[in-house]
Write a structure and sequence with these properties.
Blueprint: H1 4-46, H2 51-76, H3 81-98, H4 100-115, E1 123-126, E2 129-136, E3 140-144, E4 150-154, H5 155-159, E5 164-165, E6 172-173, E7 176-179, H6 186-197, E8 210-217, E9 220-226, E10 228-229, H7 234-251
Antiparallel strand pairs: 1-2, 1-5, 2-3, 3-4, 6-10, 7-9, 8-9
Helix pairs in contact: 1-2, 3-4, 6-7
């Protein structure tokens, strides 16, 4: 005969108590984890530790404490944690093999935090993307590109490739060129460009503006125009320098550079043929003359 009291007293009540206990432990454990995370974050912020390292440490600590909390709840519910740990280890191996790329991103993120080749707020070029670093996460690095796009780059791709940090030094060079005609006075052009480009806002005084002869081509000499500025002012100085080159050329009335070609006659040819023209005797109607051979090759015979 079915004994309802026995079912309730021996099974449902103990199971219900375990469920209630698990819920209570989960809630209290979550509160404790959040409290510890805030304490760690506040302590690291007071020591002026890099914000990226603070977020990384907080995220890692939260994950580790959540795993410990889940194991505690399973133990309270009567589930053997030793067998569960073995199962978790086996699952970890399988997941690690399947998610090798994800784990590689995690390991690369740790190296980025420890070695710190760049920090949040730096403008970098890594993994084929150029932008400002918003965050170095557990698996990806978040960048905001100059055209205001948010790009998530895997940490493995960032750490495994060349990293260019534009904000590492106090200034950088802007490389531009100015094509001149052959008739332009080079010394005067160099002096004019140096004086004008040095007046552009955000161009640093030291090192000074470089204006030198870069090369010669069929159109004339090419000048290298190279001012220096802070990375944040790069594009403003770049475009203003182009405007300054055009302004100086217009003020000095520099001629437009153009390729010149001189046609030289082959050796042994002189006279009209040498100048590219040929003299053909005129045909006088009614004079009984005949057209010179080759004058009108397609005309009918007279």
């Amino acid at each position: 005969m079915f004994d309802l009291d026995k079912l309730v007293n021996d099974y449902l009540v103990p199971f219900g108590l375990k469920i209630v206990m698990a819920v209570v432990i989960w809630i209290i454990g979550g509160i404790v984890i959040n409290l510890l995370a805030r304490l760690v974050r506040s302590a690291m912020n007071r020591r002026h530790i890099d914000p990226t390292l603070v977020r990384y440490t907080e995220s890692t600590m939260r994950i580790a404490l959540r795993i410990a909390l889940i194991l505690s709840i399973l133990s309270v519910c009567g589930i053997e944690t030793t067998s569960f740990a073995a199962l978790l280890a086996a699952a970890g191996i399988a997941i690690g093999a399947a998610w090798s790329g994800l784990l590689s991103n995690f390991a690369s993120g740790i190296f980025l935090i420890v070695l710190r080749p760049f920090k949040s707020g730096d403008m970098i070029s890594a993994g084929g993307v150029t932008g400002v670093v918003d965050e170095i996460g557990l698996f990806v690095t978040t960048l905001t590109t100059p055209d205001n796009l948010r790009v998530y780059v895997g940490n493995t791709k960032v750490f495994g490739d060349n990293i260019t940090v534009y904000d590492a030094n106090a200034f950088r060079r802007v490389d531009l060129t100015a094509q001149l005609a052959h008739t332009v006075d080079l010394q005067d052009a160099v002096a004019r460009l140096k004086a004008r480009v040095a007046q552009i806002p955000n161009v640093v005084e030291k090192p000074g503006v470089d204006v030198e002869i870069l090369e010669f081509n069929p159109s004339g000499p090419v000048l290298a125009v190279r001012p220096y500025c802070h990375n944040r002012d790069y594009w403003q100085v770049y475009f203003d320098t182009n405007k300054a080159i055009a302004e100086v050329g217009g003020t000095a009335h520099w001629p437009v550079p153009a390729t010149r070609q001189i046609l030289m006659p082959p050796p042994g040819i002189s006279g009209p043929a040498a100048s590219g023209t040929s003299a053909v005797p005129p045909i006088v109607p009614g004079a009984g003359g005949t057209a010179p051979a080759g004058t009108l090759p397609n005309a009918p015979a007279p």
